């Protein structure tokens, strides 16, 4: 078990995008731990040397497997000096086109690699169809800030590095796609019987939300309630299906049990797709079934480590998939911590209540560091929501799978099953919406840095593992230290400038409070502002200033984001809250003066604001520019602290 764990860590060190110094430091620590373990096992020097060499090779394999474009990838067609390149290509659709804002998108496979297609309007095309395309090929845009990842970051794990903006297309062939047609038929029939939300929920319980388009409000409610895992195809759904199959075939001979079990797992994998969490569930399910049938004792932790190692050897980039990370962490929590937690809870709770709470509590604690690393919010009532939803999820999942089978084989009977399952789905939706609307349903802590997450993990692990009292006492100070460091980060006076042409956001912070200025008022700007607030750990901005010169329709998104929303600021007026303020520096420009505590900044988004500031005598404190200054303009900034886009990044923190 320790060998597979060491191999997994070595492979992970090669994949993770760490800088050289921490990567070498972690590699040295791993090597020392392996040497200590080998000494206890009385390995010879040659055995130890061979094992360390194997670890080094695994790390190199992980490094080679990092997401990066291949030599033939379409992104190389774009000359370095140009933004785009006209192309004509043949492509096979990897998914049905989906509406995304004002356009429509789909992933496609070219002979040389994958691209994202962007259509001006959604064509009636389907997965698997072959097209002749003509348009302009562009590089995918990266995010303007780590808290706002762009398409380049999101699609790198799928091997997509460029986008083709389709100007003309022609259908070449419609090859048979039985699995895609089956998924589409199941989702359509379940929605027809159950309606948009209940039917979509039933379809997601069978296919997973990656294969089903769900309303954004439904996904957000499940996320706020801590039940997102119910919508993602994972080990829970497979265990329900496999448990039902084994229950039906428990008295049948092995010649029936084995094909039935592996057939059920195969159908589940084909319907849910080749996502990392699905592959992990299938491998572990297959291992558990084989061990059970062979009469050997189950070794769940070894099975998990071996399964993860096999997956990462085949595709190292899976380690960077958030779904894979959450799935692996939750499964480890169930294996290692659910039992001890149940024993402790029995001291204060009845046996049934302790058993019901132990599973979601273990999974929540093990996934907490990852939630703070990637999302910055924690569902406050996740354990309670999972306990209340558990009696509904298992029969709903089985019923949804039965409805899917009926939709394919006996469609006239689908209404009868729907009469039983749809009310239950509506009940689950009502429960989820209730939990999501409770006060403080999500704690806005903000995204933590890697070092702070490791500190939190080091403080939690001795309490989640069967460690001795000495280790727990040593780790105990790490938890308040992590909380204290995060509180100090949140209480500093800070200014954040984020630019993503033509949009721009400015956030000013003081002792945990924050104000926001947005140069655009369109819905996309509001969605990005919500992401900023979540990543920064801001529950609601004190005030919001919209400086969009084009009038926009009233959008409730903005009003939910701040206590006070203003769409213009006249000269002499000031938006302020305790310790924070913003005002116009001139009636003739969009230049702004910010104050946070004792700190003061001037933000000059364009040259018109620059000229107004010069005419007023260069007053104010530190200066942030929204443009690249000329050498002559740089001379005018002498003696002042100044930042502009080429000073390392278009976004950055200034802190007192």
What order do the helices and strands come in, and which of them pair?
Blueprint: H1 2-15, H2 20-40, H3 45-64, E1 84-93, E2 98-100, E3 103-110, E4 113-119, E5 130-139, H4 151-155, E6 160-173, H5 178-194, H6 196-207, H7 216-225, H8 235-248, H9 254-272, H10 276-293, H11 300-314, H12 322-336, H13 338-345, H14 351-374, E7 377-379, H15 382-409, H16 414-437, E8 442-444, H17 450-464, H18 469-475, H19 478-491, E9 494-500, E10 503-510, E11 513-518, H20 523-536, E12 541-546, H21 556-561, E13 562-566, E14 574-577, E15 580-584, E16 592-596, E17 599-604, H22 607-615, E18 622-625, H23 631-636, E19 642-643, E20 652-655
Parallel strand pairs: 4-6, 11-12, 12-13, 17-18, 18-19
Antiparallel strand pairs: 1-3, 1-5, 2-3, 3-4, 5-6, 7-8, 9-10, 9-20, 10-11, 14-15, 15-16, 16-17
Helix pairs in contact: 1-2, 1-3, 1-11, 5-6, 5-15, 5-16, 6-15, 6-16, 7-16, 8-9, 8-10, 8-15, 9-10, 10-11, 11-12, 12-14, 13-14, 14-15, 14-17, 15-16, 17-19
Number of helices: 23
The global form is globular
In whole angstroms, how far apart are the ends? 48 Å
Structural class: alpha+beta
User: Runs with pLDDT <50, length 5+?
Assistant: 647-656
Structure description:
- By secondary structure, the protein is an alpha+beta fold.
- The protein contains 23 helices and 20 strands.
- Strands 13-12-11-10-9-20 form a six-stranded mixed beta sheet. Strands 14-15-16-17-18-19 form a six-stranded mixed beta sheet.
- α13 crosses α14 (351-374).
- The radius of gyration is 27 Å and the shape is globular.
- 33% of the residues are buried.
- Residues 647-656 have low confidence and may be disordered.
């Amino acid at each position: 078990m320790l060998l597979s764990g060491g191999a997994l860590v070595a492979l992970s060190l090669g994949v993770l995008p760490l800088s050289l110094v921490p990567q070498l430091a972690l590699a040295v620590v791993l090597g020392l731990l392996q040497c200590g373990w080998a000494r206890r096992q009385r390995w010879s020097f040659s055995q130890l040397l061979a094992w360390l060499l194997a670890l080094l090779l695994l790390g190199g394999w992980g490094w080679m497997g990092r997401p990066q474009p291949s030599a033939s990838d379409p992104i190389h067609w774009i000359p370095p000096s140009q933004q785009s390149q006209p192309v004509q290509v043949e492509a096979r659709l990897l998914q049905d086109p989906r509406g995304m804002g004002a356009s429509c998108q789909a992933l496609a496979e070219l002979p040389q690699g994958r691209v994202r297609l962007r259509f001006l309007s959604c064509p009636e095309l389907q997965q698997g169809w072959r097209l002749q395309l003509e348009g302009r090929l562009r590089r995918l845009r990266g995010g303007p800030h780590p808290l706002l990842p762009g398409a380049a970051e999101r699609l790198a794990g799928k091997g997509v590095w460029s986008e083709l903006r389709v100007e003309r297309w022609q259908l070449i062939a419609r090859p048979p796609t039985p699995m895609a047609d089956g998924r589409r038929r199941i989702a359509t029939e379940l929605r027809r019987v159950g309606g948009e939300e209940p039917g979509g929920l039933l379809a997601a319980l069978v296919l997973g939300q990656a294969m089903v388009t769900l309303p954004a409000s439904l996904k957000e409610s499940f996320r706020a309630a801590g039940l997102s895992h119910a919508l993602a195809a994972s080990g829970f759904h497979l265990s329900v299906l496999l448990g039902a199959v084994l229950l039906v075939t428990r008295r049948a001979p092995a010649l029936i049990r084995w094909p039935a079990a592996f057939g059920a797992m195969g159908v589940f994998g084909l319907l849910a797709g080749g996502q990392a969490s699905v592959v992990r569930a299938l491998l572990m399910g297959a291992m558990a079934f084989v061990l059970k049938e062979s009469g050997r004792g189950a070794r769940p932790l070894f099975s998990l480590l071996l399964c993860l190692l096999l997956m990462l050897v085949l595709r190292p980039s899976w380690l960077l998939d958030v779904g894979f990370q959450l799935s692996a962490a939750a499964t480890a929590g169930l294996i290692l911590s659910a039992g001890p937690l149940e024993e402790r809870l029995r001291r204060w709770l009845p046996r049934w209540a302790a058993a019901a709470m132990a599973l979601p509590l273990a999974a929540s604690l093990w996934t907490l560091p990852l939630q703070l690393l990637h999302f910055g919010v924690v569902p406050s009532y996740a354990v309670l929501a999972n306990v209340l939803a558990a009696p509904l999820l298992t029969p709903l999942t089985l019923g949804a799978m039965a409805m899917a089978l009926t939709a394919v084989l006996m469609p006239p009977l689908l209404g009868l099953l729907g009469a039983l399952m749809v009310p239950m789905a509506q009940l689950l939706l009502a429960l989820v919406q209730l939990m999501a609307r409770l006060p403080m349903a999500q704690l806005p802590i903000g995204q933590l840095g890697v070092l702070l997450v490791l500190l939190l993990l080091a403080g939690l692990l001795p309490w989640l593992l069967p460690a001795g009292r000495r280790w727990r006492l040593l780790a105990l100070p790490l938890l308040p230290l992590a909380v204290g460091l995060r509180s100090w980060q949140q209480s500093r006076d800070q200014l954040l400038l984020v630019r993503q042409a033509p949009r721009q956001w400015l956030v000013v912070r003081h002792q945990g409070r924050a104000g926001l200025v947005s140069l655009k008022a369109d819905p996309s700007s509001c969605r990005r502002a919500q992401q900023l607030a979540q990543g920064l750990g801001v529950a609601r901005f004190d005030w919001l200033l919209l400086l969009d010169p084009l009038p926009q329709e009233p959008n409730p998104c903005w009003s939910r984001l701040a206590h006070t929303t203003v769409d213009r600021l006249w000269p002499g007026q000031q938006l302020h809250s305790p310790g924070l303020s913003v005002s116009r520096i001139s009636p003739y420009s969009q230049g702004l003066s910010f104050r946070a505590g004792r700190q003061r900044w001037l933000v000059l988004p364009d040259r018109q604001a620059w000229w107004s500031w010069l005419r007023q005598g260069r007053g104010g404190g530190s200066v942030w520019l929204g443009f690249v200054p000329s050498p002559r303009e740089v001379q005018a900034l002498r003696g002042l602290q100044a930042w502009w886009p080429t000073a390392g990044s278009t976004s950055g923190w200034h802190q007192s």
